[in-house]
Amino acid sequence: MWLYRIARAQAARAQRAAIVDRERLVPLDEHDVPADEGTDGETAETAAEVHHALAQLHASHREVLTLHYLQDLTLEEMAAALDRPVGTMKSRLFEARRALRRVLKDTRHE
Fold it and tell me: Is the CB of residue 47 less than 8 Å from the CB of residue 33?
């Protein structure tokens, strides 16, 4: 967990420096996400939408969603890694899901 904390601190520093360059971010293209063979491309489109929506979220929301869904960490493991109470992680995960849902909804209505 200590290694994650160090990496997180370094990433936070880099992200603060990159905020100035936000306009240079390139949105994901449908070709950036590989489609599974035998699908009609819907999976790739959905994955691209989610990746695009994640890129629009605040870093703390992106972080808890990534830890929980991509790294398969439990709330307790996330709390230990981020040195926060479990209740805080539960709240952040709830808020992050709501923010992601809102961004996806807005994207689909455009």
Answer: yes
